[in-house]
Every structure is written in structure tokens, then in C-alpha cells.
Amino acid sequence: MAPKILIVDNEIEDRNKLGEGLQKSGFAVAYAATAREGMNMAITRHPDLIVTELMLPDVDGFGLLEILKETSLTSQIPVVILSEWGSTESRRTSLEMGADVFLAKPCTAGRLVSQLPASIKRRKSSVRKKHKIGEAS
Predict the structure, then answer these.
(1) pTM here?
(2) Fewest Cβ atoms nearer than 10 Å: which of 30, 74, 135, 137?
């Protein structure tokens, strides 16, 4: 099973472009447009990684990150902050709050994949090996 990534971003074009690139790179992708929807999907779908924009319509990405890290069902899910707020302050705050990676927009799927936490890279590599072993039989 491909590693699952949840993208939380209300900018449909950005969300879809990133998601398409991630799917081409072998990830299963789900989308949410609000922090509330993202939190619900994180609890029900158990993604391997959450990518969230800071500017969301209901609760900002900092608030979502705080809720994710304080909730037992989601506290161990790695989080990547992806935002147009590329300031040093936003980056520092995100990482201090528990984000694994902070990337400024615009960001390609290739750049995101290169910055993924090691646990996701290992999982993706192991999935690829399983597929190759299954194909050889």
C-alpha cells in the first residue's frame, strides 16, 4: 500500500497540482480544504504525512498543527508546513510547534518529496520493493 499523504489547503489549484505530482511519485493523496476537515480526515484516514498550508479559512495552520500534536490519534503523524508565509518567524514557529519540515510556496512535488521525513521515505522505499518482488513472481 502506498504511503498516504493528506494535503490541507483551500487553494484548489495549488492543492491539486501538488497532489498530482505526489501521485505520480507513488503516494496515495487525500485533500481537505479546511483545518476542521483536515483534522477529521487525519483521525479517520490515518495518513502517513500531513501537508498543510498556514492560511486556512477556519483555523490557521498553526492552530491545526497544535491540535494535531495534542491529539493522541494524530500526534505522531509527521507534518509539513507549506506556505506563502515564508518568513523566518513563521518557519521558526512551525518547527517549534512540532512541524517536521517548513517549505515556502511555490513548491513542487519533487521538492516536497526530497524534504520528506526519513520515516516516509523508508516506507515508500519498502512499498516499492514489495511491488518489485510481487511482479517478479
Answers:
(1) 0.86
(2) 137
